[in-house]
Each structure stands twice: as C-alpha cells, then as structure tokens.
Amino acid sequence: MQVKKTRYDQLIENLKPEEMIINMGPQHPSTHGVLRLELITDGEIVKEVIPHMGYLHRCFEKHCENLTYQQIIPFVDRMDYLSSMNNDHAYVMGVERMMGIDKIIPKRVEYIRVLVCELNRIASHLIAIGTYGIDIGAFTPFLWCFRDREHIMNMLEWASGSRMLYNYIWVGGLFYDLPVGFEERCTEFVSYFKPKLIELNLLLTDNQIFIGRTAGVGILPLDVAINYGCSGPMLRGSGLKWDLRRTDEYSAYPELEFDIPVGKGEMGKSGDCWDRYKVRADEVAESIRIIEQCLERLQKELKRGPEFDPRAKLPKKIIPKEQEFYIRAENPRGELGYYFITDGKTEIPKRVKARAPSFNNLSVLPEITRGVLIADLVAILGSVDIVLGEVDR
Amino acid sequence: MNFDEITKLLSEKFGSDVIIEVQKGGLQPALIINPNSIVPVCQELRDNTNTWFDFLSCLTGIDHGVESHKFSVVYHLASIPHKHQLVLKVIIDHDRKLDSLPSFISVSDVWKTAEWHEREAFDLLGIQFEGHPDLRRILLPDDWEGYPLRKDYIAAEEYKGIKIKE
Asked: What band does A3 get if pLDDT is binned at 50, 70 and 90?
C-alpha cells in the first residue's frame, strides 16, 4: 500500500514557528460530550480546526449484523440520546415501508407518534438552547430550560417507562397506548410552557450580550451548507426552507399545520450563529402548535376506545422482502437516514447504515471556523448542536 | 425528472457503457455505474439543472460477503430544488487480501459530504478512495488493526493490554 501524505500530516508538518497546537477536549465542557478539537492557533486566532472523534463509538452497525429488527430499536435510541423518539420513528418507518404495512397503521398510532416526537423535539431543542447559553456565559437559561424539559421527561417516562431511552415506538404500532390522563396532562404542560417560552425569548433572543456574541459570527453560506450535507436547523439557519416533514410528507405531518422557520439574518448576516439559535427557538413554538393539534384530534375523533390496541398491527415475524431501502426523516438535528439491506430470509438485516445529521453538520466546522477567535469557536461549535452519541454511533 | 429520464440522459451523455446495470425491483431503483466514470457522472448529475442533485444524503461502503469477493459503494443523492432522489452504485471485484485494499474513486470534490463518509467507509470496511485528500481512520483509533465491518473480520483478543474478549 502506498503511503500518501494526508492533509492532516501536511498541516502538522508545515506548522509555522508562531503557530501552536492546542487540544480542546475531549473533556472540555463546551464540546458537548467527548469531541476532541485539535486547534492550530496563532495567538488568539484559530488557523485550522481538526475534529477527532470516536470516543463514543459503540459499533452500532456491527451490532446490527446480529440483531433482529425489533432488537435494534433500543440501539437506535442510544444514537442520538437527546431525541430517542425521533430516531425510533425514522427507523420504524423504514422497516414498515419495507414490510409494506405503512399504510395500515391506525391513525391514532400515527398521531401518538407525532405527539411524542414533537415533545421530544422540544426537549432536545431546550437542551440545545440551554447549553448554548451556558457556552456563551448565560447561566440562567440553562436552568430554566432544564426545569421545563423535566416536565417533558416526566411525561414521556409515564408513557414509556423510561426517562431518556424510550423504546416506545415499535414496528407496526406502539409499546402501549398513552396512559389515561396523558392528554390532559400534556394540555396542562402546553398552557404552562407557552408563557415560559416568551420569558426564554426575553432572556436570550433579544439580549444584547447574546446578540453581540452570536450575530455575524460563524457565517455558514447556503452553498457551503448544501455541499457539506448540513441539514436541519443548520441548513434552515442559512435561509433555505427545507424540512423533510414537509418535503417527504410522512406519518401524520401532511394533516398538520406548521411553518418552517428559516434564518433571515435579522441581527447579523444570514447563516450566523444567532440565526441557527433563532431557528431552534422558533421551531419549539412550531412544535407546540403541532402538539396542540395532535392533542385536539387525540381527544376528539381519535379518542381512545376499549377496542383500540396499539399492538394490533404488530407483525408476528419481521422479515422484509429482499431489497435495499433508504429512509430519511427530520430529526431535531437534521436529516436522519437509515440504509437497510435485507436478504428476505431471516429476521436479521444484512446491513443497517445510519446517516447521522450531527456527523454531517460537524464536518462543516473546519470550514466555518478558519480565522476566528478561540472564544468564537466555542460559540460556533455550540450553535452546530452536536450529539456525540450520534456522531460516533 | 424521473428515473428513466435520468438513465436516458446519462447514457446519451456518456455512452451506453457508463451504466452497467439498472436495478429496478424494490422500492428504490438504482443505477450501477462504471467504476471509472463515477466522478464525471456525479459532476453531471450535480451541475445539470434538470437533475440538480446538489445534496449527497448518504454514502455507504458494502462488503458483499466472504464468497462473492465483491465490494461496493452506494451513493444516495437528493435534489433540493427538484425534491427527487437517486441511488447510484459502484461495484468492483476484490480478492479480500489485506495488502491491497479495494480502490474506488473519491467523489469528495463533487460533494464535501463524501469526505467524512468515505473516511468512515475506509475505517470500517477498508475501502481505499483514490483522490481523497485526508484518508485517515475516523471512528476507530489510528492504530486499530483490521476493518470491523468486513464479513470475515475476527475481533481482536486484546487492545493495548486490555482484554476485550471473554
């Protein structure tokens, strides 16, 4: 095998006398987990960022070689551990389409799925907003976000039995129906949370210090974002209306009304950190809208009845035909995709590859951090909102 | 543009030998492309305003199993303006010996997304990508031996003195 010099080797070899290599992470609090950034710096200026990951690699794809479709769901939960419901939903939809049972899923099941996914999306965005505040030096939003997130965690624990890793959405249905009184509790939460969201906006969105730290920093142009495969709030922050819930029209989303917030560059330039933050904050409000519509339908025309069984359509054996299939869905962080290869004979897939949104979103980091200050690097990394469980899988 | 029109467009532009096979059964049809012309094909699909595949969703390396001696790379393209998707595949034969890795041509100049995905395929499957600027391991440690997602991979007994097998 010929040994070719990689770009990394060249960077290290061609280090100038005034430049210095600094390691940031894997224990650095602003790297949101175990990401190591190798910085080539000249004083306070970051010349180059080289991300090193894999500290949380748990061999997801290798595990999938030996597990049945149903057994993979708990592993899927652990990929993006802040939005397990959304991971499950995408995975389950993929298997259902391969089985050809996606059209016979009861409406109530679809609405419950969307409801719990949107609750989880709010919880995930609250973490993103809260920890972003703390990266920049605002401590209060972090506490407020975690206080409100705890309500969601409690509700989802009530439904699924687990606080973070739910294993609630199953192929063909659900683990259980929602517990009695869940809809009422959720309605209560919505009316509690709406004023809190306004407070949160007052605290961060229009905060001059926050704007000073984020507006015009880490500008991600739209063409670069698309070329690097960024998706979710990263792509929308750069001004493109691209949301797979609308593009692919899966599950109950075509029947629900919601807008897709995009970054407009109100405070600085389009695609800066403030825009990405704002898209997330607006998405929380949109998720609340979706939840309200779901709750209304779940309490009226899709009311629980004694004959409703969330496990009624569960296939006895999950053996899809021999085929290859790529499913994509909108995770809080962007396009989550699963690529299945099945052999049509066993319950074990031949291959499952996960396309994680954070993995692609992180790959653009070296591009947008060239020549920024180290303090701004923290702000930019926070605005990417990575979950290392998903980057490393 | 639908799948047949894209097939026609490619065979008109690059000649009939560029598409080796059209896989139609299943939910998502795929085009198997000649390994040597994957870069011009991708470039054309990205830049042609009728196809406009500006977004590479996913790039996957695949080991076809111990008997078949085949490796492939699958490209899932998406177009943001036209909202359509396409699957491309490149398959090559390889004898599975570890002294020379199966070699594909990198598309990281067309979509930067491919850069990290190709590194991942190199890391886990031992697939070489010619023209890749920074082909290093990405998820596993730099000194890891072997390629875990290969079907004939046998997990090591220990790693740096740490026992990893019961």
From this structure: low
